[in-house]
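Could someone model zinc ion with this protein?
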Amino acid sequence: MGRYPRAGDLVRDRSAQYCRPSMVPTDPNLQRRRVASPPPTDPQTRAEALTVAAKALRAAEHVCVLTGAGVSAESGIPTFREAQTGTWAQFSPQELATPDAFAAHPTRVWQWYAARRAMVRAAQPNPAHVALVTLASRVAHCTLVTQNVDDLHERAGSRDVVRLHGSLMHARCSAGCAGSVAVSDEQRADVPTCPQCGALLRPDVVWFGETLPMPPFEAARNAAVACDVFISVGTSNIVEPAASLPWISATHGATVIVVNPTMEGQRSGPSILPIEGPAGVMLPRLIAEAFAGRRARRQAESA
Ligand SMILES: [Zn+2]
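Reply:
Sure, complex below.
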């Protein structure tokens, strides 16, 4: 293997931008001293976990949030398989979301993603998305990482979202020559072509069998290492490599808050606070308990 690509590198071989998590280097400058963590406790109830979690959030300088499919599902966005209704039901995921499928049937794959994009356009951000915008205004530094490919975080008002799996709203050159371009709603039927080289543009999402793009995963991993509090919300934390992020954070001393309708399959430990329930209910409750009566940091600074 050659060296890792650095910011500003001209990457000619697109595969060089992709890597497995074990290859992702950690920025040593992010290994800084943490703010005081709450004393280790063993909350017996969800209410106790909320109280401890709220205290940790109040003390935190840097919060990292990882959102998964559960957050989108609460806005009514179906999962990949749930979306396979009507004519799409005849295809397996491997016939719709792999590089081989796109090479063999680019129009079919493109139209499937156009249909999914239309489902997302019809959905609205939910209280969990809104609560995360509030959280970002209350802490000094907030890194929002998502496994979702919709744009509901941005439409709720979040900025600089770290996208592990890409975006339904963007396409990129299938030949790997250019960055991603925004996709308009009109581009539904025919696969558009790359303005630079004429190759087909493909949905800018991570397909089955593909590794995650390295720059966002590296950003997420660095935030997991550096943050004081890590909030995992709406994900079962089973599918790697994103599943390792909360535990990387826990092993580096952060308080980890897990918000999910079920704790089945989630790891547990002294620094892990399980808050069982829907994200759209529990996140607003957590943020309210943590910051009730406090003005938004940004507003306070500009006042
Ligand atoms: Zn191109």
